[in-house]
Amino acid sequence: MKVNVLIVLLLLAAMGYSQSPAGPTSAEMSKQLVEAYRSGDLDSAEKIGIAALALAIETKGKGSSEAAASYSNLGIVYKDKESYSKASENFEQAILIYENLGQKIELAAIYQLLGVVEFRDRHEKRSESAYLKALELLDEQFGSDNKESLDAALSLANLYGFQKKYEESDKLYIRAYRAVKKNFTETDKWMEKIQDSRTCSQVYMPMSSREKNEKRFNSDFESIFGKPKNAEDVVNGKALSLPAPYYPAEFRARRIAGVVVIGIEIDTDGNVAKTRVICGHPALGKTSEAAARKAK
Fold it and tell me: Per residue in 61-103, pLDDT tens?
């Protein structure tokens, strides 16, 4: 579940609580918060979120679902402001309330968000624990191979890839593919999303490990989808020319660096027909993609 979708859902769920005698209604605050968040005015969103939380506690109580939604929304704002400790504090308050209320789907969503901020705050163990809890809750609610857990599965797979736990990471990618097989078609956008996620999580895998890893993974993949029907039509080759991307001086000054993965489609003449940025620093994506278009 994407954060920008989640905040709207939570706000809409919170719009039923009361009006403070001297202030705006919760519905008005919710609208203002959504508008500020979507426009990128996070300082205003923070102020509105704090006021909305106070109103929810005043009118419905600290243990209410409305208060939980307000804690969640404020946590999302702090996440985007990169105030990760504050984000975690608010998500943990929401978790306590949702646990007491038995609202497990909402609880799973907040655990996913907590996983994000803990990872960004370099608390990898806490991040792993949060993602595992989200998966546990979603499996409990929706059964095995459910589509609702796809985002959490990919997030945890990325974390394991970052930690170079590639076998554990691949188990989650296979889980995700099983969910796609059960709930979607083989042309669904999730197929590409899973593939992209796996590509990015294994950027730093040693070449010496790749052959063995791919053999194991392909065996598991084919047990779900079978062997590719057009496998015999694939032509192998190697690049004749790979131009280096332009590295602007301003990026160097800001110490922007890292790996950018570019997906390409090649025509029968060996020319690049299509490119797209799969992952990497957004600032480097444009120049990297421009270089990839010139490859042969």
Answer: 999 999 999 999 999 999 999 999 999 999 999 999 999 999 9
Residue 266: beta bridge partners? 272
What pLDDT was estimated at residue 13? 46
Predicted TM-score (pTM) of the model is 0.81
Which residues of the chain does CATH 1.25.40.10 include?
3-233
C-alpha 194/C-alpha 173 separation (Å) is 7
pLDDT digits (tens, 9 = 90+) for 214-244: 999 999 999 999 987 765 555 566 666 777 7
φ/ψ of 143, rounded to 5, equals 85, 180
Rounded to the nearest integer, the mean pLDDT of the chain is: 86
CATH for 3-233 is 1.25.40.10
